[in-house]
UniProtKB/TrEMBL annotation:
Signal peptide: none
UniProt xrefs under CDD domains: ABC_MJ0796_LolCDE_FtsE
PROSITE patterns according to UniProt: ABC_TRANSPORTER_1 (PS00211), ABC_TRANSPORTER_2 (PS50893)
Sequence segments annotated as region (Disordered): 1-36
Keyword tags: ATP-binding, Nucleotide-binding, Transport
InterPro entries recorded: AAA+_ATPase, ABC_transporter-like_ATP-bd, ABC_transporter-like_CS, ABC_transpr_LolD-like, MacB-like_ATP-bd, P-loop_NTPase
Species per Swiss-Prot/TrEMBL record: Cellulomonas shaoxiangyii
Domain ABC transporter: 47-282
Any GO molecular function: ATP hydrolysis activity
Gene Ontology cellular component terms for the protein in this record: plasma membrane
Protein name as annotated: ABC transporter ATP-binding protein
Compositionally biased region (Pro residues): 1-14
Length: 288
């Protein structure tokens, strides 16, 4: 990694105006054409799950999870290691098929789709940001961001023009030609955010998006992630151990043993000190 100058914080207030509106050619929708499922016929959430159960052999990773994410809202999923956070994200995103329960995108059930249909759904209507970005190391930042749009049918020129706009809006102008190894951790995560937004997804899923970053860079990345998804009208699901990361989101659920429990009842991080506690203790311990 280079000792890169941190990019300017972005998007600044009002940045929605600066985010590109050029969308790639719309991908064929994978949502069933039928009516909205009656359970959500009134106020249809962007994404919802009912009675979600997922088992791995003897392990019940999800034991009946209910969750709703409104249009354009962000949800933090917290809880200790092994509580089912990533499994929930994978079920919501159509990566895992649940053993029971319903997942609905805009009121239409998606859990019964075939693997091919779910793959198309993920490519065309969801965006993903992971802990280590998962950028393709041999591609430049521009190519990484352009790729999802090309996979959903946009021409190379169209996809790269839009990618350039996304990168500029996210404070990354000038990094287009760099490969992931030539970016700072914060820059790489911003590229991952740009890549997640480029197909104008319905929902962005982020699994520990700041897990590999220092506190200040993580703070910037969360701001960019929350504000840019909001600016384009996407809903956001963030899995995190960090209460300060969760605080960026509109709502939070806590998980324990595969269930949603009242917020604040889990430590989110095992037996160790919680986020910010050591700093507070050290500050309090300074002689006055
Ligand atoms: N592919 C898998 N095969 C077998 N067991 C799994 C698999 N994925 C998850 N599990 C188990 O399901 C439970 C929930 O795991 P999950 O990864 O969802 O928890 P988590 O809250 O995301 O944990 P962490 O914070 O450590 O990532 C755990 O007991 C885990 O061991």
């Amino acid at each position: 990694m280079t000792a890169a100058t941190p990019p300017p914080l972005s998007p600044p207030p009002g940045s929605a105006d600066r985010l590109p509106t050029a969308a790639p050619a719309p991908a064929p929708t994978t949502l069933p054409a039928g009516p909205v499922t009656s359970a959500w016929a009134g106020d249809v959430p962007r994404l919802a799950a009912r009675g979600l159960i997922k088992r791995f052999g003897e392990t019940t990773a999800l034991a009946g999870v209910e969750v709703e994410i409104p249009d354009g809202a962000s949800l933090a999923v917290m809880g200790p290691s092994g509580s089912g956070k990533s499994t929930l994200l994978h079920c919501l995103a159509g990566i895992y098929q649940p053993d029971a329960g319903v997942v609905a995108l805009r009121g239409r059930e998606v859990q019964g789709l075939s693997e091919k249909e779910r793959s198309l759904l993920r490519r065309s209507q969801y965006g993903f940001v992971f802990q280590f970005g998962q950028l393709l190391s041999e591609l430049t930042a521009l190519e990484n961001v352009a790729l999802p749009a090309m996979l959903t049918g946009a021409s190379r020129v169209e996809a790269e023009t839009a990618a350039q706009q996304w990168l500029a809006a996210l404070g990354l102008a000038g990094t287009e030609g760099r490969r992931p190894g030539e970016l700072s951790g914060g820059q790489a995560q911003r590229v991952a955010v740009a890549r997640a937004l480029t197909t104008r997804p319905d929902v962005v899923f982020a699994d520990e998006p700041t897990g590999s970053l220092d506190r200040s860079t993580g703070h910037d990345v969360m701001r960019v992630l929350v504000e840019s998804t909001r600016a384009v009208g996407a809903s956001l699901v963030v899995v995190t151990h960090d209460a300060q990361v969760a605080a960026w989101c509109d709502a939070r659920i806590d998980m324990l043993d595969g269930r949603v429990v009242p917020a604040g009842t889990t430590t989110g991080g095992g037996v160790g000190p919680r986020t910010g506690e050591l700093e507070a203790i050290r500050a309090a311990a300074v002689p006055r």
